[in-house]
UniProtKB/TrEMBL annotation:
The lineage of its organism: Eukaryota, Viridiplantae, Streptophyta, Embryophyta, Tracheophyta. Gene3D superfamilies: alpha/beta hydrolase. This is AB hydrolase-1 domain-containing protein. It comes from Stephania japonica. InterPro entries: AB_hydrolase_fold. GO terms for cellular component: chloroplast.
Length: 401
């Protein structure tokens, strides 16, 4: 299985599964400010965390789910132009410290490209993560897939704006089946069609592919950057009925009012743990893990409701598939329908690397490349990742028509 997180199995986790007792005490730390600045980004092979967003637009989109109105944070990156632009949706890797920040440098690099196509990039935070609201929802892979599909297809989605001289462009689709190609409504007399490319990291890429297999996500191309599919604890302890029961106990403990925060602080929300995780398997080069990265990620773990998604992710509830065979089938299912780029990494953890390597030459994978990095290459080595993504875009979208 693939390891795919900034959550690691710490000694505290092992103790939990031995005793299933809560910690006797836990120190609550004061979180630093998590407000985004507005100073310009620079492109380099280091994390974008210390380089706040200079996005063309930032905003919140309202996601309606189970009687909740959830503020979803997004950023829009584009160059000023009067020409029609094509859209890219960038989705952060799912983890306890998932954030739009990981894609910022890549987004800026691509929209500033000098090719024949003008690109507009939208980066969106998952519900329960990043700068989005974090309601107490029973998060699982279906919930995350539903959010992604609705964000793309909703009439009021930020993706509906094309950048075509300020004119709004909307997409609507005909019905789809495995045997019949889908067509944009524009070909049937509707509004103009704007193509959408999806870039996703880790679990995000796999969730997007799962939605695409079902015909719920319409994309003209997908790039899976360091794709993964399995949460941390099932990798180490397995998925038999006994362990699943223990995962349920841990998940319930993390979601509990006071006790949940105590356990969350022990397992996840402390600077030492975050630094250790980044140095051991999130980044390939420990020297790239700066104090600014740790401080920023720690601040995310202190936001209201921060423990709910990690409780699901740590215990495998956000896993889009249950085996490598199912993982490969997601790619095979879109063979001939959607070109897929897989960006593997040379320094990924052993299990994650095995899952990525299994995609090399696999059915449905149009192109397979390898870059430096571990589980967050788009953040640690943004220039290298942007270069491969831009080559892919130029190959499949050679002109603006």
């Amino acid at each position: 299985m693939a390891s795919a997180a900034t959550l690691s199995v710490s000694p505290s986790t092992h103790l939990f599964f031995k005793s299933l007792r809560s910690p006797k005490s836990s120190r609550f730390l004061r979180a630093p400010s998590s407000k985004a600045s507005t100073t310009p980004l620079e492109i380099s092979n280091v994390s974008a965390v210390d380089k706040p967003s200079n996005a063309s637009k930032t905003g919140n989109w309202q996601w309606k789910f189970q009687n909740n109105s959830v503020n979803i944070y997004y950023e829009e990156h584009k160059e000023e132009t009067s020409n029609p632009s094509k859209s890219i949706l960038m989705i952060p890797t799912i983890s306890d410290v998932s954030t739009v920040e990981e894609w910022r440098s890549v987004a800026k690099d691509i929209v500033q490209g000098d090719g024949k196509v003008d690109w507009r990039a939208t980066i969106v935070d998952w519900p329960g993560l990043g700068f989005s609201d974090r309601p107490k929802i029973d998060y699982d892979a279906d919930v995350m897939e539903s959010f992604l599909v609705e964000f793309i297809n909703a009439p009021d989605s930020p993706l509906r704006r094309s950048g075509n001289g300020g004119r709004e462009m909307f997409i609507s689709y005909t019905s789809y089946s495995d045997s019949t190609p889908w067509l944009p409504h524009s070909l049937l007399g509707g509004m103009p069609y704007s193509e959408l490319v999806v870039f996703g990291g880790g679990h995000a890429a796999t969730i997007a592919l799962r939605a695409a297999k079902k015909g719920l996500l319409r994309a003209s191309a997908i790039a899976a950057v360091a794709p993964t599919w399995a949460g941390p604890l099932p990798i180490v302890f397995g998925r038999d009925s006994n362990m699943e029961a223990r995962y349920g106990v841990l998940r319930g403990t993390l979601r509990a009012p006071a006790l949940g925060w105590m356990m969350y602080n022990v397992l996840v929300s402390n600077e030492k743990s975050i630094q250790s995780q980044y140095k051991s398997h999130v980044y390939a080069d420990p020297e790239n893990v700066t104090p600014g990265i740790v401080e920023s990620r720690y601040a995310l773990t202190k936001r209201k409701g921060a423990r709910y998604v990690p409780a699901a992710f740590l215990t495998g509830r956000l896993d889009p598939v249950g085996s490598r065979e199912e993982f490969l089938e997601l790619f095979a299912a879109v063979e001939g329908k959607i070109p897929i780029l897989v960006v593997s990494t040379s320094g990924a953890p052993k299990r994650s690397k095995a899952e990525m390597d299994a995609l090399n030459g696999a059915k449905g994978v149009a192109k397979f490349v390898e870059v430096l990095g571990a589980l967050l290459p788009q953040e640690e080595y943004p220039s290298a990742v942007a270069s491969e993504l831009y080559k892919f875009l130029e190959e499949y979208f050679p002109n603006s028509s």
